[in-house]
Amino acid sequence: MITAGLDIGSRTTKALILRDSQIVGMALAKTGWLPSAMARETLADALMTANLDRVQVQRIVATGYGRIHSAVTEIADEQFTEIACHARGIAFHLPGVRTLIDIGGQDSKVIRLDEGGLVLDFAMNDRCAAGTGKFLEMTAQGLDLPLDMFIEQALTAKSAARISSMCTVFAESEAISLLAEGREMNEIARGLHNAIAARVVRMAEGLGVEADLGFSGGVGQNAAMVRSLEEVLGVKVLVPPQPQFVGALGAALLAVRRLQP
């Protein structure tokens, strides 16, 4: 059985191919202005890595903000929410996870799961860039640092500056003011990561955080963010292999479920 998952996010598009429930191909690219065109291109790239043809794929499921684009509905057989797909994807890699943090390019979520990987409840921030990958990118840019260097700075800090604002514009201004006052760059970088972690905790308060705790989405690759979450939450944070593909994996797994009798 061969299925594909497409996760068309605001920043990147991911495609993942499953063959008999084993990952055999993946591809990622920037979404750009034409989500449907990028979805086709990324799917083709993933199929190439799997040495498969499009006609061999029995079912395609799309997720992410671009899943409802009219041209995408012509590519995919069905669409599911990011919440359902990330829940299913994390259960594949880390079946013990009961609380999942998903931080992507332009939204963040906390999801509670049952023993079967089904969603019990969730909280979501999608109204502004606060607490997202975009927040980190923009604040790093405001400090004239590439994102990878910004993350390295946060990892080297032994203490953190206090960042009170989660508005991207005000946080950037606050960080620049702290630099002018003599605070070290690495302390400010760590403080900005801690501010996101604190916002995630506030999102999770109504749900309750139950171990094991997983972390998916593109920001899951950020080691400084993982550390900040662990410090603020007081629990070990588990990151699956290639966390940016968890949504696409979940979509492909849901496609498998649809094909089973």
Topology (SSEs and partners):
Blueprint lengths: L1 E7 L3 E8 L2 E9 L4 H16 L8 E5 L6 H6 L2 E2 L2 H12 L5 E5 L4 E6 L5 E7 L7 H10 L4 H10 L11 H13 L4 H20 L8 E4 L6 H11 L3 E2 L7 H14 L2
Parallel strand pairs: 1-4, 4-5, 6-9, 9-10
Antiparallel strand pairs: 1-2, 2-3, 6-7, 7-8
Helix pairs in contact: 3-9, 4-6, 5-7, 5-8, 6-7, 7-8
Structural features:
261 residues; alpha/beta; Nucleotidyltransferase, domain 5; globular
CATH architecture of the largest domain: 2-Layer Sandwich
The CATH homologous superfamily of the largest domain is named ATPase, nucleotide binding domain
Give unreliable regions as ranges: none
| Rg value | 19 Å
Please state the structural category.
Answer: alpha/beta
Explain how this protein is built.
This protein has 261 residues and is of the alpha/beta class. The chain folds into 2 domains: 2-83 and 245-259, ATPase, nucleotide binding domain (Nucleotidyltransferase, domain 5), CATH 3.30.420; 96-239, Nucleotidyltransferase, domain 5, CATH 3.30.420.40. Helices cover 43% and strands 21% of the residues. The strands form 2 sheets. The protein has a 5-stranded mixed beta sheet. It has a 5-stranded mixed beta sheet with strand order 8-7-6-9-10. β4, α2 and β5 (78-79) form a beta-alpha-beta unit. The two termini are 13 Å apart.
